Amino acid sequence: MMPPNFSKISLELVFAILFGALVGAAFVVSMSNVSARWTLVILGSVIAVALLLFVTVFSNKLKLSLLIAALLSLPIFFDINFFYRDYTPFYVSANGFSVTLFDLFFFPLFFYWLWKHNQDKSSSFRFEPVFIWFFSLLFFFNLLSSLISPFPFYSFSALSWFFKAILIFTFFRNNYKDEATLQILGRIFALILLLQGIIVLEQKFVGAIFTEQVIGKQINIVSLIGNQEVKRVAGSLSHPNNLAMFLNLFLPVACLLFFEEKKVAWRMFFGISIFLALLAELWTSSRGGWLALAFSGSICFILIMHKQGFNLIKVLLSFIMVSILAATVLLTASETFRTRIFGEDYGTADLRVPLMQVAENMIVDNPVLGVGLNVYAARMQHYDNTNEYVSRYYPFPVHNTYLLMAAESGLPSLILFLALIVYILWLGLRSFYHLKGINEKMILGLMGGVVTWLIHNLVNLDDAYMNKAVWVLLGMIAGLAYSQKIKFKQREVDNINE
């Protein structure tokens, strides 16, 4: 007599075998018919879906599975652009309406959260009026800038990323504030650093797996510094400066949680991730990234010491001595570091200065609404009165995110954006002095990551609304700060009742 569930088990087994066979056949066919990049996309997608289903089925935690997948996809730029326009005659940061790998995981997560919130009215959902005002005003100025743009299609393409940034901020503002989930998030951040470190190691010493054909973007550049050519790696971020900026967002969190982690195995995991990420950072040869990380690390160290009651003068002197020692070790041990610090970087200043002059001309002539969102490169020749006529041989935006934002969407837009970030950092700093344990380390590390981004953008180009990782961090800071505020008020009420 057959077991009662035998037919069901057999049917499931048949479906599993058929699915596996179809996936295998599709993969074999893809290897001979599509590029290596899309073959990797197919393979990665199958593995990701399989892991997602595995974790979901065995842990019954769909939300956590989607979160892990979304965060791990942050530095992976496989996307599909709807309404993409070929042969665009100038550089744009957005062309069409993009659906990224991150979106495929984040939006199900976002709508699942909304659905759960609708089912459970007791769950928290909050969006403070101050944020509504900030985002409304930012949208207003960016919309006007898009409407006056000579190429509105590209402007509205960029504006679509603004809405994504708001959704990311809103979601992380309202979720993941308990210690258990923060611990998981910290480990995911460390895993992100570990994976980028492994990719950079392979690119540096092997160069056969994570190639330009597979990743679909530039994986390194060669800079002439002094009399020496320096190969600068980019990981999966298309440019060494972008890689350094991305690593810096998560390094402060990982470093602080390393000391908070109680389990030896996880502490070793954090240590290896941090070491590989710092090694990758060194090989980017990004001086802006190095400076941003050093400054942010200094601020985090000083804040921790100040909170613990140490004398600030003694802390500063101790930190200066440690910094001198660390710089001496790096100068002695690393030729890359030594060359980038003391070598003459041909063409860098010659390029950056005239680009800044062009941006200044744009801002002076269009101070309120700018020249149009995402059309800087299209308009730069009109404002190029430099002796070098830089726009002819370098038709790309200025290497300063703040000048770019002011030039494209106006000074009010830039001021509002910076005011929003300063306000969130102020909320985080105020909460830091009341938090303890992993909450304390997490919020300080998140603020440290945002500070690195702010500093690096003084000498680097980044689209503020397209950098999804920044909005993840900003949302988490706002959420942790609000959570601390609620707990503090509750303690005051309890004390009064006693």
Q: What does this entry look like structurally?
A:
- The protein has one domain (61-497).
- The protein starts with 5 loop residues before the first helix and ends with a helix.
- Helix content is 71%, strand content 4%.
- It has 20 helices and 4 strands.
- The chain crosses the membrane at residues 12-32, 38-57, 64-84, 90-115, 127-148, 154-172, 184-201, 243-259, 264-283, 289-305, 312-333, 410-429, 441-459, 465-482.
- Keywords: Membrane, Transmembrane, Transmembrane helix.
Q: Tell me about the biggest sheet?
A: 2 strands, antiparallel
Uncertain segments of ≥5 residues (pLDDT<50)? Answer: 1-12
Neighbour order of strands in the largest sheet: 1-2
Report the structural category: mainly alpha
Shape: globular
Mean pLDDT: 82
Radius of gyration, in Å, reads 24 Å
> Level of helix content?
over 70%
The count of β-strands is 4
Order of secondary-structure elements:
HHHEEHHHHHEEHHHHHHHHHHHH
> How many structural domains in the coordinates?
1
Question: Roughly how many Å apart are the termini?
Answer: 69 Å
Strand content: under 5%
User: Counting H and I runs of at least 4 residues, what is the number of helices?
Assistant: 20
Transmembrane segments: 12-32, 38-57, 64-84, 90-115, 127-148, 154-172, 184-201, 243-259, 264-283, 289-305, 312-333, 410-429, 441-459, 465-482
Main location: membrane
Organism: Pseudoalteromonas tunicata D2
Keywords: Membrane, Transmembrane, Transmembrane helix
